[in-house]
């Protein structure tokens, strides 16, 4: 079963997909946000192309674990995605995923321009891999 992970941003959506065994996450693309309908349509197309059965959406919690306006927006987007695609949506705590991605890219000595092109995809990989690891650790 393949799962698609999403890092929701205001301008872009980072997209990652799991392997068929649900062990590793790989980057797919970055979707440039337009309208909700256009975003959902593009994500549905990607899900069909990658034979995805489930979504994992990053949930931007505050450092104390509480939900703020961005978490509410993520939950609303997830509900719309589930309704539009017919595939279940789960949420995963994405605190510091973008910072982790930035750190990885800085350590790789990647240029600022190149980092901007891949940061959202890498954040989606970190979110999805965290979810996969947590799921695999369950008894």
Verbal overview:
- The protein has 139 residues and is an alpha/beta fold.
- The protein has a single domain, classed as 2-Layer Sandwich (Nucleotidyltransferase, domain 5), CATH 3.30.420.140.
- 49% of the residues lie in helices and 25% in strands.
- It is built from 4 helices and 5 strands; from the N terminus they run βββαβαβαα.
- It has a 5-stranded mixed β-sheet, with helices on both faces.
- 33% of the residues are buried.
Would you tell me which CATH topology applies? Answer: Nucleotidyltransferase, domain 5
Order of helices and strands: EEEHEHEHH
Straight-line distance between termini: 19 Å
- The helix content, as a percent range, equals 40-55%
Task: Name the structural class.
Answer: alpha/beta
Strand content: 25-35%
Task: Choose one word for the global shape.
Answer: globular
Number of structural domains? 1
CATH superfamily: YqgF/RNase H-like domain
CATH architecture classification: 2-Layer Sandwich
How many E-type strands?
5
Would you identify the regions where 5 or more consecutive residues have pLDDT less than 50? none
Q: Characterize the main sheet.
A: 5 strands, mixed
Number of helices: 4
Mean pLDDT: 87
Strand order of the largest sheet: 3-2-1-4-5
Round the Cα radius of gyration to an integer and report it. Answer: 14 Å
* CATH class category: Alpha Beta
């Amino acid at each position: 079963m393949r799962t698609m992970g999403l890092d929701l941003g205001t301008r872009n959506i980072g997209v990652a997909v799991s392997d068929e065994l649900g062990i590793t996450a790989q980057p797919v693309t970055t979707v440039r946000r337009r309208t909700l309908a256009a975003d959902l349509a593009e994500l549905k197309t990607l899900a069909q192309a990658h034979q995805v059965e489930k979504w994992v959406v990053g949930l931007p919690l505050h450092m104390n674990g509480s939900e703020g306006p961005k978490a509410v927006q993520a939950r609303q987007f997830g509900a719309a995605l589930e309704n539009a695609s017919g595939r279940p949506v789960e949420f995963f705590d994405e605190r510091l995923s973008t910072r982790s991605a930035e750190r990885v890219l800085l350590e790789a000595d990647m240029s600022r321009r190149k980092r901007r092109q891949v940061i959202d995809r890498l954040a989606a990989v970190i979110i999805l891999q965290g979810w996969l690891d947590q799921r695999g650790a369950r008894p």
